[in-house]
Specification:
Layout: H1 3-19, H2 23-54
């Protein structure tokens, strides 16, 4: 996920969370933000791993 998309998604979740009154929904939105951050991190790690494997001289 590119940084602009991640920022937009987190901003939207923050906006919904700020306007939410119920604790359970606020907690769900907080966990959703945490999940989005973790998924973005994993996507970036896998892309970096793939790039490294593609350019590895051992594989040529």
């Amino acid at each position: 996920m590119d940084s602009n998309t991640l920022k937009w998604l987190l901003d939207e979740l923050n906006k919904y969370q700020d306007n939410e009154q119920l604790f359970a929904k606020r907690a769900l939105l907080e966990q959703t933000k945490s999940l989005v951050k973790e998924q973005s991190k994993r996507i970036n790690e896998r892309q970096d791993e793939l790039d490294g494997r593609m350019w590895s001289p051992d594989k040529w």
